[in-house]
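cron nightly-structures :: item 1 of 1
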Amino acid sequence: MLQQKRWRFAILAILPTLAIFAWVRMYPIVETLRLSLHEWNILSKNKPFIGLANFRELFHDQLFLNALTNTSIIAFGVVILTVPTAMVIAGLIHHRTHSRFSGFYETSVFIPHVVSLVPAAMAWKWIFDAKLGPLNALLEFFGIPAQAWLFDPVLSVICIIVLCSWQALGYAVLIYLVGFKNLPVSLFEAAKLDGASGVQRFWHVSVPMLKPITLYVSVVTLISGFNVYAQAFVLASDSQGAPGRQVRVLVLDMLENSFRNYRVGYAASEAVVLLSIVLVLTLIQFGLLREKGRK
């Protein structure tokens, strides 16, 4: 009887939270799925059902395919740049755990992760500025021609990858630090007795032991990369100042189709594609972690 009362109390206690979660999180997802099967121009009350027509049109739409390609390149580029860099930085900070500056190192690395996105992007836009930016001034100092970083489609993608990696690095380093602190010291002592150098201990002991952490950080960073929006909006403006035109990404494409072209159903189908990509990546993460746990 007492156990039943406890269960009843627990269920009643979490019901308000579940209701808010369902309304704020689940209802928009369900509504987006429903809208993706309809044609709606946001100005009309009529929403005729058209089935999978939006999805068929998507994969013949060059703008959408371009946005999907750019977003994928940015997402995987961020992972490739962030994950190994975060592991190395976390290893260096962990190696200096007993240094009086270790807290300063950790804080310095984590600050970019909590800085507001738009001001940070504006600061990086100044850094990449073709005429006044310090990056081109540095290149010219070494005799390298200045680059039009934010007006070349390829260079713009690289700039977005750098900005996203800079912001994702702090969180990745924090997770890796937790992993380093939980590694068994005996393995490193044994490797040291066998004559392994610091680099060898890192490569042959730390890296294999941190595979679950690496998998988690990679998937989280990849999902974050697929949701890139403000970085492209601020950095990749065209010569007329129109935001995000140099590098078209999925979220910007959705917003443009919704509020510029008034094609909400079509934009909803894009959102479903993005949701599917994130869902697949999450399932892969859980599957690999479960497989790793069995081993």
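cron nightly-structures :: done
The mean pLDDT is 84.
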